[in-house]
Amino acid sequence: MRHLLSTRDLDRETAIRILDVAEDMAQTADREVRKLPPLRGKTVVNLFFEDSTRTRLSFESAAKRLSADVITFSAKGSSVSKGESLKDTAQTLAAMGADAIVVRHHDSGAAHQLAHAGWIDAAIINAGDGTHEHPTQALLDAYTIRARRFGAGARGRDLAGMRVAIVGDILHSRVARSNVWLLTTLGAEVHLVAPRTLLPHGVEHWGATVHEHLDDALAAAPDAVMMLRIQSERMRDAYFPSAREYARVWGLTAERLALLGPDTMVMHPGPMNRGLEISSAAADSERSTVLAQVTNGVSIRMAVLYLLVAGSSGTAEPTGVEG
Amino acid sequence: MTGLLIRGAALLGAHVDDIRVRDGVIAARGSLSPETDERVIDARGLVALPGLVDLHTHLREPGGEASETVLTGTRAAAAGGFTAVHAMANTSPVADTAGVVEQVQRLGQRHGYAEVRPIGAVTVGLAGEQLAEIGAMARSEARVRVFSDDGHCVHDPLLMRRALEYVATFDGVVAQHAQEPRLTVGAQMNEGALSGELGLAGWPAVAEEAIIARDVLLAEHVGARLHVCHLSTAGSVDVVRWAKARGIAVTAEVTPHHLLLTEELARGYDARFKVNPPLRRDEDVHALRAALADGTIDIVATDHAPHPIEAKECTWAEAAFGMVGLESALSVVQQAVVDTGMLDWSDVARVLSSAPARIGRLEGYDEPLAIGSPANITLVDPAHARAWSTADLRGRSTNTPYLDRQLPGRVVHTVHRGVLTVDDGALVEPEAVAAAHQEVARG
């Protein structure tokens, strides 16, 4: 594995390997000294063309715990907001000697271009590109589901037989796309739930079961219900008439929460719109994995950085991951 | 040397004959012996076609000289075997006045690589609000007969109705860029399973088909001609077929790239494959080929759209729409529909020369290679094959989608009004072209 651009091209073994390395990373978080040495002397650049404080902090903290030097490049106030092209930014970073670039971009395919256009030789980690993919989010979601279900026995396992419902703006969601490919690869059964206006054309080819009503999906007794953030501009663009109607038909209300099976998890990638896609009752319940997802995010990003950067230099291939 | 003797070419790919060119016209055909003052071209193994006519070219001048000029664009045209191009109106300033169209036409005439027929804007500034001075452009020295807001759809139905009626007054035609704007806000590629997977906003087929359906009904209602630019979907073919069966005066064009390439090329987010209308599905490509073969689609037009490198070396969403196509058009047509047995070379002469000339009211192309007609001749070697490269391009821009693709055929000679513009595969220098035209004019 040279880059992490998409979960679509991750095979089952590589995905499980990342989750298992993340388990190792998580254990170090309980130590008194949390810092590990493997990326000492390596430079990780966080290149954020789009604001995302949570994802940026998560990657920063992951890289620092692995002892990497971290440079953060945010669009606001930098040359990238003054019309510098992706190509020039990439070549600048290459000239600075970046070993890995974590890129968040408002355009789909930006990470793919950085990896393949020949502008820079560093490992590229996609931290969200347009409405395309957000692979580390999907990995941390899979990790969270696996850890909740199997606890200490999670290592080495996939998600075979588990049922995950993803609810909300599938059309514009990179989280949904990355999750569909990854969860399917790991053997889970994925259900997608959205009004028809927020389902992409051709979603029937995604290998997931599609529902137009949340109640139908909940009737299928999912092991996890993942609520996606609804952005307010979707209302203006006539994807649905009002927040109230959305919450009534597709929101995880207190009433729907009461219908869930005893072990069903409630997930959300954050930031949440309480009262719209998720009620406070659901967000704050015992079932909620929202904070665990944040914690696990750091472990997953440590694992990815470790596998891509520590594995890329030495004489041997310590990770056993190729490609 | 004022004359040419082209020996042994297969005329329209059929019988082998010699062609004598004198004083800018085709003077004789048959088994001919060379005369002392004429240049002899050994054309054995080559196919002789009439000079190609492009109804849809972006020459970019005035305003876009970083991408192309009338000179560089007509050199690219000559290299591709074209002797006439229709220059789209989306320049800066827009070709919406007699002054701009006359300037563009004169530039073409001065350089002499191809006849430049300016297309006039339908609306002022392509803004879709107010009719441009169509009458003034039609009556100018440029004698404009094709009007288009290409790049923008004339989407207001009332304005489109008026445009069809008003343009018909001057024996012109509206060439519509069929794209419902509200259905294509932010659109990046064909809407389908792949756009959903790649996270690129979809450009649905219905946004093209709905406008074509509306426009053919408007054309029928007001009794005017309509031309549909770069038709790209199987559904559009059905609509045009229905309209023609009903007797509506509609003509349609397809681009070479829509006859060969599919949306799958968007997978790598390489913006060289970003074009408007977008590359479609395999089913659409096959429907377009069949429609060209059965006459539902009348012509092939390049939509040659040069862009500077930086407009393509960026993210897909930031990149400009469009690809260059003049140099590659004949090769792509050969690969897509000739080598597949759907069209023969006389069909190629129709879809790339006589039919577009008729739509554009361009004289001298009615009877391909007829004695007495202007000597616009393209000699092509269909047996040639090569991997396409930027070295095959002759314009100012390099945004070709065919790099490294194996393409058949090569234009060996192009004759424009009796003057060689391409000689043995190489462009003739501007001074030599200009001097030769003067010699022909002196007779």
Concise description?
The complex is a heterodimer of chains A (323) and B (443). Helix content of chain A is 40%, strand content 14%.
Please, could you describe this protein's structure?
The complex is a heterodimer of chains A (323) and B (443). By secondary structure, chain A is α/β, with parallel strands linked by helices. Helix content of chain A is 40%, strand content 14%. Chain A is built from twelve helices and nine strands. Chain A has helices spanning 12-28, 53-65, 86-96, 110-116, 135-150, 174-185, 214-219, 233-236, 243-250, 254-259, 280-283, 290-313, and strands at 43-48, 69-74, 100-105, 123-129, 163-167, 189-193, 209-211, 224-227, 265-267. A five-stranded parallel beta sheet of chain A has the order 7-6-5-8-9. Chain A has a four-stranded parallel beta sheet with strand order 2-1-3-4, with helices on both faces. In chain A, strand 5, helix 6 and strand 6 (189-193) form a beta-alpha-beta unit. In chain A, helix 1 packs across helix 5 (135-150), helix 1 packs across helix 12 (290-313) and helix 5 (135-150) crosses helix 12 (290-313). Chain A is globular. Chain A starts with 11 loop residues before the first helix and ends in a 10-residue tail after the last helix. By secondary structure, chain B is an alpha/beta fold. Chain B has two domains: 3-48 and 374-384 and 403-442, Urease, subunit C, domain 1, CATH 2.30.40.10; 51-359, TIM Barrel (Alpha-Beta Barrel), CATH 3.20.20. Chain B has helices at 70-79, 98-111, 134-139, 157-169, 193-198, 205-222, 234-245, 256-260, 282-294, 329-338, 345-359, 430-442; strands at 3-11, 16-22, 25-30, 38-42, 47-50, 52-57, 82-87, 115-118, 146-147, 173-176, 189-190, 202-203, 226-228, 250-254, 299-300, 377-387, 406-416, 419-423, 426-427. In chain B, the strands form four sheets. In chain B, strands 1, 2, 3, 4, 5, 16, 17, 18 and 19 form a nine-stranded mixed beta sheet that branches. Chain B has a five-stranded parallel beta sheet with strand order 9-10-13-14-15. In chain B, strand 11, helix 5 and strand 12 (202-203) form a beta-alpha-beta unit. In chain B, helix 6 packs parallel to helix 7 (234-245) and helix 7 (234-245) runs parallel beside helix 9 (282-294). Chain B is globular. At the A-B interface, helix 4 of A face helix 5 of B.
